[in-house]
Automatic annotation (TrEMBL):
Its main location: membrane. This is Cadherin domain-containing protein. GO terms for biological process: homophilic cell adhesion via plasma membrane adhesion molecules. The gene is ORF223211. GO terms for cellular component: plasma membrane. The keyword Transmembrane helix applies. It is found in: Membrane.
Length: 67
């Protein structure tokens, strides 16, 4: 199990290469290693800014989508 110690931020680093190694205490010791890549997805972490307090719009019921 790999656990983050802090939140990832794509603006700082968008990709990490992680290597996890495990070994037992036997003799001879058995070792396993795996490498994987973590790609950080972008999140909109900026609050929206509106210039007006209220916006109003009117549309007709049977309008074609995208008009």
């Amino acid at each position: 199990k790999v656990v983050l110690q802090s939140k990832l931020d794509r603006e700082n680093t968008n990709k990490y290469t992680v290597i996890v190694s495990c070994a037992d205490s036997g003799f001879p010791s058995l070792l396993a290693k795996v490498e994987f890549t973590v790609i950080v997805l972008d999140e909109n972490d900026q609050k929206p800014v509106f210039s007006l307090r209220t916006y109003e719009a009117t549309m007709f019921e049977n309008n074609t989508a995208g008009t």
